Amino acid sequence: MASRFSSALLLVFSSVFAIVSSQQELLGKVEENFYEKTCPAAERIVRDVVTSHFGRNRTVPAGLLRLFFHDCFVQGCDGSILLDASEDGSVIEKEGLPNRNSVRGFDVIDDAKTRLERVCPGVVSCADIVALAGRDAVVLVGAPDFAMPTGRLDGRISRRSEADALLPAPFFNATQLKASFAQQNLTVEDLVHLSGGHTIGRSQCQFFSNRLYNFSGGSPDPLLNPSYRAELQRLCPQNSRPTDRVTLDRASEFNFDNSYYTNLVAKNGLLTSDAVLTVDSETESIVRSFARDPDRFQLRFQKSLLKMSKLGLKSKANGEVRRRCNAINPKRMEEESSLVTAITDAITRALAFSK
């Protein structure tokens, strides 16, 4: 009897071990060429779509890079920024103050998804499309090409409250920026490297006009070069629309290069969150090194972007491959309960065996 009970107990533990092991294999992870066998044309299709949109609108790369950044900082790199409704009923990320009426690129992602669904239905995640498009965006405007690992799953939760709380604001000082990046397990170096994404794109006047007219006691920001300030005051007069836009990098808006850093050294940074990088002891030396060495910037930017691209990866327990990027799949799998069900079945079989 004892022998039969021991055998039954061994069966239970063996079953549980197998189940737990299989669950551990479901943890989110990415790898290069993930779609090599399941959808070999995936990366080419995404790049073709991004290139096509870029041919019609030169500002597309900046929008896609920002979309990627804003996606990864909230719920991880899971395409949650694309959702029009959250599984838990929360107000979505798109409605967050950092995103509303400013984040762009949704049409590019949707176009890529439509093409991919025709070729490989239900295979390529929207989160991977965002990541690949972010990579392709910077390559199209001059960054060296590099491999972007894939295999992400799409999340089901999107919360405005998290977008408001987690995304760094354009008026942040260096301490606030460091804290924001530290929440994502990103370093001070990552902060300076990824800020270089501002070498492309534009910003609305409302995000820096305080530096021009009323930064401290009615005076302009002393970190702003007077000649640059005069230029900005012409572009964003006090009666201008808050949504009027100015280039983030006055030297080369459509080139992915190190001029963002040379601008910072010359006090020609547009946003407060840019300018403060030159007065903080930890960030200032990195800014100056990138201003001197464009190749170093490109390599470090790639390294930090790839690090960011692995934030908060979803597993099969809390992720999926959406059929439409703006909506969770209508019938979700039940991985959350599979472990409990399987263990219960194993115990039932073991008890029956021991009788």
From TrEMBL:
Pfam name, any one: peroxidase
Annotated binding of heme b, by residue: 198
Signal peptide: 1-22
Entry annotated with the keyword Signal: yes
GO cellular component: extracellular region; plant-type cell wall
Residue positions of the active site: 70 (proton acceptor)
Disulfide bridge map: 39-120, 72-77, 126-325, 205-236
Residues annotated as binding Ca(2+) 1: 71, 74, 76, 78, 80, 93
Keywords, sorted A to Z: Calcium, Disulfide bond, Heme, Hydrogen peroxide, Iron, Metal-binding, Oxidoreductase, Peroxidase, Secreted, Signal
Cofactor: heme b; Ca(2+)
Annotated cofactor note: Binds 1 heme b (iron(II)-protoporphyrin IX) group per subunit.
Catalytic activity: 2 a phenolic donor + H2O2 = 2 a phenolic radical donor + 2 H2O
Localization: Secreted
Keyword Disulfide bond in annotation: yes
Stored SUPFAM superfamilies: Heme-dependent peroxidases
Molecular function, one GO term: metal ion binding
Protein task: Removal of H(2)O(2), oxidation of toxic reductants, biosynthesis and degradation of lignin, suberization, auxin catabolism, response to environmental stresses such as wounding, pathogen attack and oxidative stress. These functions might be dependent on each isozyme/isoform in each plant tissue.
Recorded family membership: Belongs to the peroxidase family. Classical plant (class III) peroxidase subfamily. Belongs to the peroxidase family. Ascorbate peroxidase subfamily.
UniProt-recorded name of the protein: Peroxidase
Organism: Selaginella moellendorffii
High-level lineage: Eukaryota, Viridiplantae, Streptophyta, Embryophyta, Tracheophyta
